[in-house]
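Entry 14. Structure prediction run on the chain below.
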Amino acid sequence: MADGSGAFIRNHAHLHADYLAAFRRGGLDVLDCVEPVVREEDARAEPLHRLAPDAVTDAMAGLPYVLVWELAPFIPADARHQWNTSPRI
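Output returned:
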């Protein structure tokens, strides 16, 4: 916080399988998934770091902090030739 105090945001865990099931229900294909990880310098920016620096860095560094999905509408295999006429580079 601006005054130097900490804050709490509840984290709701979602399994990758939950996302994939939702995408299927929505008629979407996954083209890519990127998972940037928490770097040591990111962990040092956490408010709790000043209270327990080693514990916070050890607990957070290397963990993914966000999932970035690239999605596209599902196209049945027998119809894909109509949409993919040029090779991907």
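The chain has a mean pLDDT of 85.
Filed with the rest of this week's runs.
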